[in-house]
Amino acid sequence: MTTLSTTAAANPATGTEALLAAVRTGTRVYDLGRRLTIGMPQSPNHPPFWHALPRRHGDAVRADGGSAANDIITMGTHVGTHIDAFSHVSHDGRLLDGTDATTAGRGGRFTDLGAHTIAPMLRRGVLLDVPTALGTPDGCAPGYEITAEDLSTTADQQATPVQPGDVVLIRSGWGRLFGHEDRTRYVGHTTGVPGVGEAGATWLADQGIHAAGADTIAFERLRPGAGHSALPAHRVLLVDRGVYIIETMALEELAADGVHEFLFVLSPLAIFGATGSPVRPLAVVVDE
Amino acid sequence: MTTLSTTAAANPATGTEALLAAVRTGTRVYDLGRRLTIGMPQSPNHPPFWHALPRRHGDAVRADGGSAANDIITMGTHVGTHIDAFSHVSHDGRLLDGTDATTAGRGGRFTDLGAHTIAPMLRRGVLLDVPTALGTPDGCAPGYEITAEDLSTTADQQATPVQPGDVVLIRSGWGRLFGHEDRTRYVGHTTGVPGVGEAGATWLADQGIHAAGADTIAFERLRPGAGHSALPAHRVLLVDRGVYIIETMALEELAADGVHEFLFVLSPLAIFGATGSPVRPLAVVVDE
Amino acid sequence: MTTLSTTAAANPATGTEALLAAVRTGTRVYDLGRRLTIGMPQSPNHPPFWHALPRRHGDAVRADGGSAANDIITMGTHVGTHIDAFSHVSHDGRLLDGTDATTAGRGGRFTDLGAHTIAPMLRRGVLLDVPTALGTPDGCAPGYEITAEDLSTTADQQATPVQPGDVVLIRSGWGRLFGHEDRTRYVGHTTGVPGVGEAGATWLADQGIHAAGADTIAFERLRPGAGHSALPAHRVLLVDRGVYIIETMALEELAADGVHEFLFVLSPLAIFGATGSPVRPLAVVVDE
Amino acid sequence: MTTLSTTAAANPATGTEALLAAVRTGTRVYDLGRRLTIGMPQSPNHPPFWHALPRRHGDAVRADGGSAANDIITMGTHVGTHIDAFSHVSHDGRLLDGTDATTAGRGGRFTDLGAHTIAPMLRRGVLLDVPTALGTPDGCAPGYEITAEDLSTTADQQATPVQPGDVVLIRSGWGRLFGHEDRTRYVGHTTGVPGVGEAGATWLADQGIHAAGADTIAFERLRPGAGHSALPAHRVLLVDRGVYIIETMALEELAADGVHEFLFVLSPLAIFGATGSPVRPLAVVVDE
Fold first, then answer.
1. Which chains have at least 3 CB atom pairs separated by less than 8 Å from chain A?
2. B67 interaction partners in chain D (CB closer than 8 Å)
3. Rounded Cα gap, residues D45 and D187, in angstroms
4. Are the C-beta atoms of A108 and A114 separated by less than 8 Å?
5. How far is the CA of B278 from the CAs of A73, A270, A282, C211, D263, in angstroms?
6. What is the enclosing helix (H) or strand (E) of C198?
7. In this complex, which of C53, C87, C271 lies closest to D73 when CB atoms are compared?
8. Would A61 be classed as within a structural domain?
9. For B54, nearest residue in chain D (alpha carbons)
10. Nearest by Cα to C246 from C197, C200, C280
C-alpha cells in the first residue's frame, strides 16, 4: 500500500480510499456460482434444492395497494456451488483439529468447525486452467486424474505462481456439462469425473493455499463407476491440512477470458454448526 | 508476495495487482451478517430457519476410514440477514419494471426480477450511525421514525457524504436486541421498531444509492402494534425507485469502531426466481 | 345392522359392539402404503421426500436420564402413497366445483377443495386384479391401456361387482418395480406405464365409485416417452366426475392372497389447502 | 347393497361382509386430528409445519387444457396430531427394547423402533372424559395432574372399563385452547398443562392398553414454567412399558356427544426410521 500511495498521482488515495478507487475503475466481476434451480445436477447423497413461493402478489393486498411475495427453500448445503466446512469430513474418527468427530457433532451441530467458522475470503485467487495448459482446452477426459505436475506446469505456463494464502481454482472443463439436458452427465457416475487425486491435493496443500475449488461436483477425480466411495483429496485437504474445498464452480467464463489471477471473494452463510454452505464466489479484476 | 512488492516499488501496482495489494495489507473485514441459528428472531410471515444433520460422522464409515456429515436446511429467504429482490414487493399490482406482478410470478418464479438478477456488489458503503449523531448512541427509541434530516445530518457530522451508487447502511441501534432471550423483542410487534419512513426512503433514493440496509427485521420504521400492515419505505425503494433493501444486519461492531466508510461486499445466492436471498455482507477497510 | 343383530347368536352384538366384535376376531389388515424412504422412486415434478433427525439420543440428556430424538421431513404431497384432492387438477381453468382454478388457489391454499376437505374413508373396497383376469398375472405390459372391458371382465371373473360408493383399486402389476434398484424403472418414462385411460376412467366414474387407486405413480396409463404430458383419466375423475385418485399403492400382497373385497380405510392428513396428502391406506378383512 | 341385505336376511353376514355391513349402516366417524395449518400452536423443539404451492393452476397449462397444482411441506413429526414411535424417547441411554439408544439411531434412522414399525390400529377405543367425571366438564385446571384414581373413577362412571389392547384417549379439556388466537396458550409453558403424571401412566400401562392419547401437546401434565424438563409419563409408556402415545388430539366433539366407546382407527405414515408420524385418527361408532 505504501508503494501505491507514494506513486499515485497528485493526491494519492490511501487505505480504504485506494480500495474504493480500485473497485470504482474498470472492475470486472466474474460470477463463479451456479444458479440454484430446481432439478439442477447434484449428488443423490444430499437433500436437493427446492423452492416455492408461499405467497404471490395478489394473494393478500394491503389497504394501501402493497403486496409481498415470499419464498420457502429446502436444500442440502452441498448442492449447487458450495464450500465444505472442516466439519464435513473425518478420517479414522477424527476431524482436522484432532477432536472426535462423533462427539463434535453431538447436538446436531459442529460448534468448533461448523460453517459459521469459515471466515469470509478476500484473497488472491489463481485459476489453474489445466486442460488449456495440457493442450486440450475443451476439458480433461472423464475420470482423468490431474497430477501435481499438471498443476505446477499450468501455473508455470500461465506465469501465475501459487502463493501461500491463495485460493486456487482448478478448471477441468467438466463444468461445460452442468447445463446438459441429461443431468446425470455432470454427476458422472458412469463416466468418472476429472480432478486432482491425493497427489494433486498434497501439492496444493504444500503451497500453503487457503482454499481450493473446482468446476466439478466432488472437486476431486472420481473413477468411472466408483462414485464417492473413496475421496482421498478430501481427506488431505479437509482433515490433514486445513484447506477449504469449493465445489460446482462456474469457471468457463474466467478461462475463456484468460483471467488467471484475480481478487477472490467468498462470503459463506454463517449457518451455525453446519458442514458447509451454499456460496456465490466472485473473481474480481481491474482493467488498467 | 516478494515479487509483487519488489515490482511495486519500481513500478507502482496497477489494476488487479493494486487491488490485491490493497486487500493484502492491513485489511479488516467486518461481518455484517447474523448467524443462522434455529430459533433466531424472525417475522412469522416467513418459513423459519431450521437445520439438521441427516448424516453424522460414524453413520457410514468408508473402507478407508473416511466419513462425511451433511446438512438439510429449510428456510424462507427473508429470515436472518437477507436482501430483498425487486420481485418481493408490488404496488397496485405492479413491480418496479411496470410489469403485472401476478403475471411475473407465474410458474412460481420471477424470471426478470428474481434474486438471481441481483448483481454481486463491490461498492462504496456508508454507515449512517443515526443514534450516535442524534446524541443517543445506544439506539433510537422504539417506533422512532428516522427522518430525511436525521440522515443528512448524520452524513454531514460523519463527513461521509452519500454518493450515487453507494450502499447506505442505517444504524438504529435496534440490532442490540437481536440476541435478546425474549425473541419477540427484536421483532418488536408491541413496541414498534425504529427506522426510516417514506420521507427517509425518498431522501435515500434521491441520493441515487444502489442499496440500503438496516439493523432491523423490516428495514423501515414499524409503529407499535402495527406490524407489517404498511411498509411505505419498501414501496419507495423496491417498487418506485429500484433501490435494494438489506435487513437484519449486524452493524454494532462497525459503529463501535467508528467505521463509516468502507468497501461493501455482498454476493447473494442466485436463487432462480426467488424474492430474496440470505446473505452475509461484508464491510472492508484498509488500515493505512 | 338390524339383520345382523337379529341373526347373531345368543347375545347378539349390535351397533358399535358389533363393529368391535368384527375387528376383534380374526381381522387381517393389509398395508397398502409404501414406506417413505429417502431416494424412493417418484415423479421429478414434486419435491422429494427427505428426512433427518435434528436431535438424536444422547444429544441432550435431561437430569433424570431422559432423552428425546426427533425428526424433520420435507416432501411434496404427491410422493409415496398419496391421495389427490380435487384441487390438484383443473381443466380449461376450472376445478370440479366449477370455480376458477387460479382464484381458488389464491393465498397459496385451496379453501374449498383442499386436502383438508377429503373425508376419511371407511368404505367397501374392491381390488380389480386386471393382469390376473387377463391371464398375465405378473402384470400388464408397459404402457398398456387398461380398457373399460378389462375392468368389467375382471369384476365379473372375481365375482366382485363394483358398487356405488366403493373404492376401487386397480392392480396393473407395475408395483413390483417399486423397489427396483434402478429407480427410473418404476417411474417408467421411457417404457410407459400401464393403467386406465379416458375410457376406463369413465367406466369407473359411471359405476358411481368414491375413489380409485392404482399401483403406479400416476394412476393412469402413460405412453412410452410421453411422461405426464396428457392425463385424461385425471381430468375425468378429478375435474369432471368427483372421484378421488390414490397413487403408488402396494397391491401385490392383496393380489397374492386373492383378496378382492375388503373394508377400505384411508385417513388423509388434513393439510389445510393442499392438493393432496400422503396416506397409508388399509384393506381389512375378517376371517370367518 | 341390495344383494348383500337380501343375503343377510336369510344367511347372516359373517366375516368381511359383516364388517362392511356394519360400516354401511349409520356409521358416524369422528375426526380426532387437528388441521395442519401454518402457525398452529406447537412445541418450539420441533420444526414447524409449513406449506406452499410450488405450482398453481395456470402456471403451466398443457395443450389439452389441463393444469396441476402441487405442494411442498416441511415439518417435524411431533407437530399437529401425531403418534410417538418407541424410538422417540430413551432413558439412561436405553430404548424400549433395551438397545443402546445412540447406536439405534446411527445413520439417522431407527431401523427397529422407527415410525414405520407402528402397526396400523383398528382397536377398541375408550374416551376417558376426566373433567366431566370430576364435575368440571369445561376442563381440568392448568397444570392439574390427572391421577390414577381419576382415570379409574372416570372409567367406572362411564361404564367403559379399560381392557387390554385398548386405545385410551384422555380428555383434559385443554383442547379448547388449540384455536386460541394467542398460540402460546395451548403450549402452556407459563400456566402448565393438565394431564397424567407418572402414576396415571403406570395405571394405564397396568391395564395392558396398546396406546394412550390426549388433547394436549405433550400428553402428560406439565408443571407451570417447567416445560418439557421432565416427562415421566413418556418414560413409563414409551421406554418401560411399550404403550404408544398420541398427542394434540381433537376430543371435544366426542365428549360433547358422550361417545366413550368406539372403533379407534389410526394409520401412521410409514416414515422409515422416524421417531413419530403425523396422523389423523378416527373414532367410529355405529348407530343402532
1. B, C, D
2. none
3. 12
4. no
5. 11, 10, 17, 44, 50
6. helix C198-206
7. C271
8. no
9. D108
10. C280
Grid cell locating A88: 464435513
**Beta strand B282-286 with B27-31: parallel, antiparallel or unpaired?**
antiparallel
| CB atoms inside a 10 Å sphere around CB B38 | 17
Closest CA in chain D for residue B38: D47
| Interface probe with D: pick from A37, A46, A56, A72, most Cβ of D within 10 Å | A72
- Cβ–Cβ below 8 Å for A58 and C106: yes
In a domain, A254, yes or no: yes
Tell me the one-letter amino acid at D49: F
Residues of A with CB under 8 A from a CB of C: 39, 44, 47-48, 50, 52-56, 58-60, 74, 106-108
**Domain ranges, residue C141:** 2-35+77-286
In order of A1, A18, A25, the CA distances from B25 in angstroms are: 7, 12, 20
Least Cα separation, residue D155 to chain C (angstroms) = 17
Q: Of D48, D52, D268, which Cα lies nearest the Cα of C81?
A: D268
Q: Nearest-CA residue of chain A relative to B66?
A: A91
Residue C175 is given by DSSP the state G
C52 lies in a domain? no
The ipTM of this complex is 0.94
Nearest residue in D to C274, CA atom: D71
Alpha carbon distance A76, B71 (integer Å):
5
Tally of CB atoms within 10 A around B254: 23
Decide if C48 contacts C42 (C-beta within 8 A): yes
The total domain count for chain D is 1
Question: Which amino acid, B53?
Answer: L
Task: Concatenate the DSSP letters of all residues of D123-168 into one string.
Answer: EEEEEEEHHHHTT-TT-PPTT-EE-HHHHHHHHHHHT----TT-EE
Question: For residues B17 and A285, what is the distance between their CA atoms, to the nearest angstrom?
Answer: 9
Mind telling me how many Å the CA of B32 is from chain A's nearest CA?
Answer: 11
B192: left (phi over 0), alpha (psi -120 to 50) or beta: left
Per-residue pLDDT of chain C (288 residues; tens, 9 = 90+): 222 232 333 344 668 888 888 877 778 999 999 999 999 999 999 999 999 999 999 999 998 999 999 999 999 999 999 999 999 999 999 999 999 999 999 999 999 999 999 999 999 999 999 999 999 999 999 999 999 999 999 999 999 999 999 999 999 999 999 999 999 999 999 999 999 999 999 999 999 999 999 999 999 999 998 888 789 999 999 999 999 999 999 999 999 999 999 999 999 999 999 999 999 999 999 886
Which chain D residues have a beta carbon less than 8 Å from that of B50? Answer: 47-48, 74
- The separation between CA D70 and the C-alpha centre of its own chain, rounded to angstroms, equals 27
Contact C70 D88 (CB under 8 A): yes
Q: Which residues of B touch D (CB under 8 A)?
A: 39, 44, 47-48, 50, 52-56, 58-60, 74, 106-108
Chain D hits for A51, CB-CB cut-off 8 Å, are 54
Say if CB C233 and CB C198 are below 8 A apart: yes
- Report the 10 Å Cβ neighbour count for B39: 11
Q: Domain for residue D143, yes or no? A: yes
Where residue D217 sits, what CATH number does that domain have? 3.50.30.50
Tell if the CB–CB gap between A278 and B263 is shorter than 8 Å.
Answer: no
Distance CA C97, CA C241 (A): 10
